[in-house]
Write a structure and sequence with these properties.
Layout: H1 2-7, H2 21-32, E1 51-57, E2 66-71, E3 76-82, H3 86-90, H4 99-102, E4 105-111, H5 113-119, H6 129-151, E5 154-159, H7 164-171, E6 178-187
Antiparallel strand pairs: 1-2, 1-4, 2-3, 4-6, 5-6
Helix pairs in contact: 2-6, 5-6
The structure holds flavin mononucleotide (FMN).
Residues 9-10, 12, 97, 157-161 line the site of flavin mononucleotide.
Length: 195
Amino acid sequence: MNTLIACRHSVREYSDAPISRAALERIVHCAQGRSSSGKRNAPSAHGLYPLRLFAVVQRLEASKSGLYALDTPDARLGEWLKAISPEALRETSLADDAWLEHAAAVLVVAADYDAANAHFVDQQPDGRRGERYVHIEAGAVLQNMHLATLAERLDGVIVAGFDDRRLADLLALPAPLRPVALFCIGACAEASAGR
Ligand SMILES: Cc1cc2nc3c(=O)[nH]c(=O)nc-3n(C[C@H](O)[C@H](O)[C@H](O)COP(=O)(O)O)c2cc1C
């Protein structure tokens, strides 16, 4: 674990190589899969689990590209939902983050903020404590994702600088889900391959 932490940093350049489905599913397992206690591999306040994961697949071995639902407890790539152009994904960025277009896969962390706020409504006068918990939980999930990505000898970076409306429309996220963050994953470019 110390070795993984020591080599954790954001990487935004990837090779053109595809990544394997097994590696992607192991990353999803670390992020939100079922734990040995029967819960999940990242904590959730009151065990509510308001996060949902999706994958925008751009270069995954033996898999059609496009948006997939992820069955998170079983850590499996689920139903293919729709085609997503890599350029359109990049256009949701607030800073023209080219890595959204060039990543082999982009994991989407989305949340049911309404369910979280409703569940924790009594914990804060404005009824919005659930939002804080969603963001704490997303941070735990993203860190697990990043460390698991390194363990697969892949690279990645969190992207949260996107236009919420544009991204939600592109992904056609089912209401009331809203995007929280993206995590780009790719095979190591030459410069980082030696680590
Ligand atoms: C909440 C959050 C949002 C971020 N959003 C972006 C982003 O939109 N685009 C990007 O390239 N990096 C993004 N990053 C990555 C940071 O730029 C990166 O973590 C920071 O520069 C520190 O570098 P390191 O991760 O290599 O230690 C984000 C990181 C966090 C935690």
